[in-house]
Amino acid sequence: EILHTPGVRLFPLTYNTQSLLGCGWTEPRDSGLTIMGREVVREMNRIGMIIDLSHAGERTAIEAIEASQGPVVISHANPIWWRETKRNVSNTLLEALAAKEGMIGLSLYPHHMKSGADTTLAEFCSMVLKLGERIGITRIGIGSDLCQDQPDAVLNWMREGHWMRPDPNSVRAKFPRQPDWFADCRGFNQIADGLRTEGLSPDDIRAVLGENWRKFLQRALKPQT
Questions:
Q1: Most buried in the list 14, 39, 67, 143, measured by CB within 10 Å?
Q2: Residue 11: beta bridge partners?
Q3: pTM for the full model?
Q4: Nearest Cα residue to 198 out of 126, 94, 92
Q5: Mean pLDDT score, 74-88
């Protein structure tokens, strides 16, 4: 979850469950950003770290956006109006993100998409255009959430960590199959073709497929003086 690319510091406040900083999206009650979370947000702003709210609960995410002096990201999720799951993002949260000049990376993980692995390229690209009309195309990138060639045990470890006792009667989680148009990173070419078919301009296609992220990171990765 932490991106270690040289010069890029991206950090999630939570991962699914409650942390010392805030609440994750799987918790039944979202208690919001904690006192320690507010201190961490302030320090992240000071040293130039980017706050990632992908796995946060909605109240925690909105309070983090309000507390942050700089823009934040939701690096891999989709609008909840496209796929009804708490892991995706409400209009309220999208508007708060855009108002703070933040960005969302659209997820290609099947559980976040309209029809799962059967989601079509046209459905995905149509969603990109509709979202662009709502929050601006410059606020949109791709955050594929692609877990390629990982064993299912990794998924269970990510969900349960080392502290949860596995339920022997529960069905163990498995990575879902990817849609055929994005089985690996070569699928970016197909997304470009799909966006072109939907009528997006060449400049906007380049923006969504990487230029928006580049410009955002150049703006955001500056420590406060």
A1: 14
A2: 51
A3: 0.88
A4: 126
A5: 97
